Amino acid sequence: MDQHSSNHAESKRHFKLRPKVHEQPLTPETPRFHVFLIDTGWNGPVSKVLHEHMPLFHHYHPQDPVYILSREQSIKVLKKAPEHIGRDPMVVVYDIYHPIGTKTKEKANYHGFRLNLGIIKNPEQALGKLQEFLKFVATHRTADCLSCEVERELHREGLGNMVKLLREASEASLELL
Amino acid sequence: MNEEGIPIFPLLVASLALCYFGLEVNRQRNKLRSIFNVFDREESEIAAVLEQWVESGELKPFVVSNHT
User: Fold this and answer.
1) Cβ–Cβ gap A119/B31 under 8 Å
2) For residue B15, is pLDDT > 60?
3) Are B35 and A169 within 8 A, CB to CB?
4) A41's torsion region: left (phi>0), alpha (psi -120 to 50) or beta?
5) Which residues contact A129 (CB under 8 A, 6 or more apart)?
6) Which of A40, A65, A79, A177 is most exposed, with the fewest beta carbons within 10 Å of its own?
7) Is the pLDDT score of A7 beyond 70?
């Protein structure tokens, strides 16, 4: 399909994942995200954990629809974006909130974030990341600039890792002494 | 000539430790960013396919069963 016909097909669609301007201020109850679970089944133990706990996402955020793709659908999607093969199971969250006053153009960019749990081999670690992710969505769902919050969170986690690393190094050196 | 002027061995160990620390911090930061990342894209083939599936009803929102 060429660019023109693709754009035409897109303009006819009612369901859109691009952000839309909201006149009302954001509240914790405002629907904001569309969540998709893509899983081709590479990483069995992590898949199991994720599928078991995915209903929690719905319980915490019933206003945000959660879509669980079948294995076949996940394969079709990743064929379109082969750079993500091997990173699944992944949770893709589209943010449909477009704050008033930000740069306006005909079509807003697709905006959101991704949790690539397929990179993690240990199911317990994957569960920990999923919990952090859920907490992040719950605590920042009314933030105007979500990507700023993600950057801040990554920075904080990076600092936390650095401190952990220093502590481990000092413990190891004490053991050597 | 002062043979005891520069303690080479401790300096070497300290610089190796620093290099290791720097590399490890960098490795962990990259890993963190590969697990959790933000996207902001003008066009997305994945999004277009997902929109099409949801629109056609091929992909439906997850519903929690109350009978479990």
Assistant:
1) yes
2) yes
3) no
4) left
5) A115, A117, A120, B35, B36
6) A177
7) no
B33, B42, B49: residue with CB nearest A80: B49
Q: How far apart are CA B34 and CA B43, in angstroms?
A: 21
Which residue among B21, B36, B59 places its CB closest to the CB of A73?
B59
- Nearest residue on chain B to A157, alpha-carbon basis: B32
CA A27, CA B31: separation in Å to the nearest integer?
Answer: 33
List of residues 6+ apart from A158 with CB closer than 8 A: B25, B28, B29, B32
Summarize pLDDT for A46-98 with one digit per residue, the tens: 999 888 888 888 888 888 899 999 999 999 999 988 888 988 899 999 988 87
What's the pLDDT at A173? Answer: 62
Amino acid identity, position A76? K
CB contact (8 A) between residue B55 and residue A13: yes
The predicted pLDDT at position A12 comes to 61
Distance of alpha carbon A43 from alpha carbon A47, whole angstroms: 6
Q: A138-158, pLDDT tens digit by residue?
A: 888 888 777 777 777 777 776
Q: Which residue has the higher pLDDT, A106 or B35?
A: B35
**A67 and B60 in contact by Cβ < 8 A?**
yes
**Size of chain B in residues:** 68
The CA distance from A172 to B57, in Å, is 57
